[in-house]
Write a structure and sequence with these properties.
Two copies of one chain form a homodimer. By secondary structure, chain A is an alpha/beta fold. The first copy, chain A, contains eleven helices and twelve strands. Chain A has a seven-stranded mixed beta sheet with strand order 2-8-7-6-5-3-4, sandwiched between helices. Chain A has a three-stranded antiparallel beta sheet with strand order 9-10-12, covered by helices on one side.
């Protein structure tokens, strides 16, 4: 990433750049291969083949069948389709179980269902930002139709015990969805290992373009479409397929599949070095989230005695996020951190540093320098 | 357009290629300008500025204010948001008036509302494929909440009397939506001239990429979002903005604004030449749709004594559509043509030839030759 300012980009959890090899895969579909996959002539068949190849690539990364992948316009739409579509498909059961740390793309559809008379239970988290399984056990007593808990938190990176949650939920026959927008491409993930029924993929969090995503839907899981139109995506998601971006998502999944383990170790090493240096340079700095069960690229820290917005203004050499960057920044404490028991005043000093494929050792060294100086000036 | 077959592309109503100048505008946002518009650092501000510039470009083409434009994932989503969002926003009124020739992206949401207990009235069309205003006058007697009639039909190109429909609907206080997926960029269009409250734009029908669209929403028109999430697009359409494609849509609207009149006359001349030559070469061929109040690029014809699928198979030199190409091709007669009173057997010989910016005089000559020979062999 570069701009006229050329700050060091440490906001990969907000969005990732499109990888050059992903863009290369897309370009023919933004140039001469411009058919509509529904057309029966060669232009259409060429576009259809590209969409179906991409479906295979996404499925391969997740460990599922191609026909279990529905392409959408992104993580928000996938989450809405999973939650509202599951609710619409269920006549018998009405309750939903979710967590207190979900992204608005999950929490808002749940609130919508609540306003429409469904019962929504929200599981709390411990001080490391991990959902409390014992609360989940109590919450599923109602026999909910759906349990939806994110795979990894966008702010802290804490990885949730989805496999254990699935075991709890399946005892009561619930469908289980996880918003994996932040984990796909960052950590190994297999839908059968997790035992999940529905899983959200967001293209722009894994080096595919913005405006494309996928929903994994396990065979025989009931789902009612929430938008209506022609019969695209097996009748579950209408609209002419976003061919170029779908091809990009497929290519990004292949890159992730082939290099995820090596790359995540590289990024983890850099991230841990960043933390060690900040910890050495800033007395009283604290880590938010789980020390080990955490996305390898994510470092959420509390800078003592300073507001994060002031700190980041004083550190223009880096581009990072104060709180969750997926929606408009506000000077209020992060609800995720508050739910973990972080002091409301201290929480205002939280900064999320998220690394990625473009991050170098030099970036880390420069970021530490910038942040330490900014903190000394700003506190 | 080109492929290994290199057929002549005459299916611009199914989808258009991305114009080179549109792709050029997009590329920086698929490369170095990769920020999330919600981020507060320079990468985010750069992306936000690009989205807002594109919003101005779309607004300029439609003759509205930038804040009246909501970006979506395409025409289908815009139609769903307009129809379901208007219905959700209205407590008092429940009826919907639509036409019998709508695209599934309009007719299916209307059917959904019907299943949920709303009254849906469908206006018929005359033999030229134009809605009957006297039926509209009767249909609005109920005081419907919403009238939704397309601006130009995707199959025949017949342009609907939206201005007159608006006058009829406004007498009864209805909100009026038009699906302008096929007309934006093909004919001059101004939302105030039409008097419309909601208007659907589909990027890939006007040389922007697939997977992006817009909904024009007149100020103070009530609308409830149908997907829930963070507060993007003034709370009406959540999800990280598809920056590159939105930039592409803006660029395509600028191209349309600057060259629409000249280009539409060029295409109209070619289209009329195509029709004259086919009419001279194929005894009994008939034109579907309005002779003059019709999209300048669209030619829907009935080939006598032959099924269109057989005819098109016999003419591999051209890529055109038998019936509407936006959804899976079927060997059943087009409901649009049937609603115009076309004989069900004759309707099976319908072919839609839709021209565009890439169409040349040579293409027209070659297409005529290919179609006449194919018809002679296939009938």
């Amino acid at each position: 990433m570069s701009s006229s300012f050329n700050p060091i980009y440490l906001d990969y959890n907000a969005t990732t750049p499109v990888l050059p090899e992903v863009l290369d895969a897309m370009l023919p579909y933004l140039r001469e291969r411009s058919g509509n996959p529904s057309s029966l002539h060669p232009f259409g068949r060429e576009a259809r083949a590209a969409v179906e190849k991409a479906r295979e690539e996404v499925a391969y990364l997740l460990g599922c069948l191609p026909e279990e992948i529905i392409f959408t316009s992104g993580g928000t739409e996938s989450n809405n389709l999973a939650i509202l579509g599951s609710a619409a498909a269920s006549q018998q059961r009405s309750a939903v179980v979710t967590s207190v740390i979900e992204h608005p793309a999950v929490s808002r559809p749940c609130e919508f269902l609540e306003r429409r008379g469904r019962k929504v239970a929200r599981i709390g988290v411990d001080e490391l930002g991990v959902v409390r399984l014992e609360e989940a056990r109590r919450a599923v007593d109602d026999g909910p139709l759906l349990v939806t808990v994110m795979h990894a938190n966008n702010e802290t990176g804490s990885i949730q015990p989805i496999k254990e949650l699935v075991a709890v939920a399946k005892e009561r026959g619930a469908v289980v969805h996880t918003d994996a927008a932040q984990s796909v491409g960052k950590i190994p993930l297999n839908v059968d290992d997790l035992g999940i029924d529905l899983l959200t993929v967001a293209g722009h969090k894994l080096y595919a373009p913005k405006g494309v995503g996928a929903l994994y839907l396990r065979r025989r899981t009931p789902l009612t479409p929430v938008t209506m139109g022609a019969g695209h995506e097996r009748g579950l998601r209408p609209g002419t397929e976003n061919v170029a971006s779908i091809v990009g998502l497929g290519a990004a999944c292949t890159v992730a599949r082939l290099s995820l383990r090596v790359e995540s170790e590289r990024v983890r090493t850099l991230r841990d070095r960043l933390w060690a240096s900040l910890n050495a340079g800033i007395p009283g700095i604290r880590l938010n989230g789980h020390p080990t069960q955490r996305l390898p690229n994510t470092l959420n820290v509390l800078f003592p005695g300073v507001r994060s917005s002031v700190l980041l203004d004083a550190a223009p050499a880096i581009a990072a996020s104060a709180g969750s960057a997926c929606h408009e920044g506000e000077e209020t404490a992060s609800p995720v951190l508050l739910s973990m028991g972080v002091d409301p005043v201290e929480a205002l000093g939280a900064v999320r540093l998220s690394l990625g494929r473009g991050t170098t050792e030099r970036d880390v060294t420069a970021a530490v320098e910038a942040l330490v100086i900014a903190w000394e000036n700003a506190r």
